[in-house]
Amino acid sequence: MVIYSLTLIQALRTAGHIVMLTGAGVSKESGIPTFREAQTGLWAQYDPTELATPQAFRRNPQLVWEWYQWRRSLVANADPNPGHFAIAQMETLIPAFTLITQNVDGLHQRAGSIQVIELHGSIQRTKCFEEETIVETWIEDGQIPPHCPHCGGLLRPDVVWFGENLPQEAIEAAYIAAETADVFFSVGTSGLVEPAASFPHIAHSRGALLVEVNPTETPLTVLADFVLTGASGEILPPLIEQTWPQKGAAR
Ligand code: APR
Known about the structure:
The chain is of the alpha/beta class. The chain has helices at 6-14, 25-28, 48-51, 54-59, 61-76, 82-91, 107-111, 168-180, 199-205, 232-243, and strands at 17-22, 96-101, 116-118, 121-128, 155-159, 183-187, 209-214, 226-229. A 6-stranded parallel β-sheet has the order 3-2-1-6-7-8, with helices on both faces. It has a two-stranded antiparallel ribbon with strand order 4-5. β2 (96-101), α7 (107-111) and β3 form a beta-alpha-beta unit. Residues 23-26, 28-29, 34-36, 102, 120, 188-190, 192-193, 213-216, 218, 231-232 line the site of adenosine-5-diphosphoribose.
């Protein structure tokens, strides 16, 4: 087993506020494919970054809806992995802990995380493409996508597509968290998509210790104070056990 640096362990033990930014890599061990890796099966011929746009939805709403239905079914059949559980556990061990995720799969919440800032929305929710209001129920009359029961517009997943604005409340909360972090973790994210990519830089410039967890290098690696190379499900549980040996029981 890896033995983590005492400096890192001490910093975690004494931190008042730890902020963790997560991306698709955290859900990789649950079998959810990231956007930037080759898709498999039925959807192999499509580039996700070209399906997740309002233009794609306007052009072919059925295709985009069905792609999200497929992603929903992947998530429904997946379970949170040890990385998700370790993050949820960390929330109970720190005076203040803020989780900011770019993931839309809801696996953090299913692992027990309570305070989750969802920057890119959630595929569990559906909204009206026209009015942008959340829609809980609709009539399944075979039309794909189904229609909004209020205005008749097309329904779409409540996720942030490329070229769309992030939810204002989430972004403000994330900025405040980054500015006030003692330790900032960047976990399973390629750090390529703004504004999330800026958060570690903001935290670092305000004096936070920067920790990256990723099996491969990212643009953030050179800036990080600690680079923990590997899968989050393998890196995070022993880090917690070594930091809080009394409380951090492995799952
Ligand atoms: N544990 C931790 N990290 C991992 C693992 C793992 N088991 N497996 C892969 N990774 C890393 C990859 O090395 C990569 O750096 O996770 C990162 C995933 O990167 P992206 O696919 O770019 O995901 P993300 O950073 O979340 O993308 C941001 O862009 O794709 C859009 O809207 C989508 O929310 C997403 C946003």
